Amino acid sequence: MKNEVQLITYANRLGGANLRDLKKTLSEPLEGLFSSVHILPFFFPMDGADTGFDPIDHGRVDPDLGTWDDIRSLSRDMDITVDLIVNHISIESDQFKDYRNKGDASEYAGLFTRFDDIFPQGATERELNSIYRPRLGLPFTKMIIRGEPRLLWTTFTGTQVDINLHSRQGWEYLENIVSIFANHGISIVRLDAVGYAYKKRGTSCFMVPETFGYINELSRMIKARGMEVLVEIHSHYRQQMAIARQVDWVYDFALPPLILHALFKGTFRYLRKWLEISPRNAITVLDTHDGIGVIDVGPDVINGERHEGLLPESEISELVDTIHLRSDNLSRQATGVAAANLDLYQVNSTFFDALGGNCREYLMARALQFFAPGIPQVYYVGLLAGENDLNLLRKTNNGRDINRRFFTEAEVLLSLKKPVVRGLVELIRLRNTHPAFQGEFSMPATKHEHELVIRWQQSHEWAELVADLSTGQFAITHTHNGQMKTITANMLLQEGLSVVE
After folding, report:
1. Less CB within 10 Å around the terminal CB: N or C of the chain?
2. How far apart are CA 44 and CA 52, in angstroms?
3. Which residues are known to be catalytic?
4. Dihedral angle, C-alpha 250, 291, 388, 498, nearest 10 °
5. 10-34 pLDDT per residue, tens
6. pLDDT band at 74 (very low <50, low <70, confident <90, very high)
7. CATH number given to 6-91+163-263+277-355+374-436
């Protein structure tokens, strides 16, 4: 993966309705801005109950979006990241329909995880209560299989049946999809929901020690076909650091809440501590299609031992309340019991609205992200400083949809004219082109917690960010054609000013 800013987007929500429209957007109004794009699930159907993460056919491009030829065409111009949905498959898939009709006689009988596979002698109340799930309730759904009621494991929803990776059929299913990816120009494979894949009696069935073995096996499968591996897991920071030692890339999901906390509370104390130890092979984010995670900075019990988080629990609660306040309570309407997709570990809001639409704070947050160790990823809504989409939320009652706006071509062009977006584009161009970011990271000491200095240097080329929360100002000073150049928030917000040229 190139050490440049990556875009993450849906195929049909950034300036058009399909993959060809996306290519046009990337090659025209966004020309030269991204060398890598993560296209969120474009498999059939892309508009299911879980917005593409519940595939009926994981190896087929939704015909409303295009074909694998369109993906290959995009891959000639940039690196493509796609999702391998490790944990589950739709009940509308051909494989599950065959199992439902034929039962144990089906060739796919071993593909699905049944209650009896993990609890052949039944389960105690304590064992059931120990299972971790991102929604309320137990992860089982009663279904009629060849005329008989059976309990199937359904971690996320009753329409998504978990794949049994204790079986040969489970691994063959995933290996087939990985081969399809490799044959169509994919560069990076993201392991989606892999933390739930290993089920073991008497555990939480989430990120148990054996999960790391699954991640290793999947990584070998993917890397053997010439692709890189990105692991997507919301969990305690110690587990993220452990995973980072095993794979090519992990997400820095702790960064968004830590940056928000710094801006809200006026201290870099916790952010600085994290940046000192955070994985260097990270994909850094502020916003994603899933919302703003808070579990990533909270405490957890790992192997029976409690570990404190990156933020005190009381400050996490205050952080969430402040996001609701700053977003004029729109995020509250999309989070928790207020929306259909009850999420226990995130706040649903655009990052721009989480800051109350404060343009200077938003650009400071992006500057901090771009200077943090790792490769920055920008979500398409965040790229355009998008606001919470209350209309889409009301239409679907899916809390995450508040941050999944459909941008028409005209709306993209209009958004790119906003000063805050123009400023962000300038920061992206600087991060993409300055040689210092290929060098060494450091954080010189400061006298106060409200100040943070981050420096990158390669040979005689360097770039330094100085942020001051007491004034709400930041400045980036960097080498430029043998001289020094300084960029401030005020400069970035000026109409028509290029700070990179």
Report:
1. C
2. 7
3. 192, 232
4. -20
5. 999 999 999 999 999 999 999 999 9
6. very high
7. 3.20.20.80
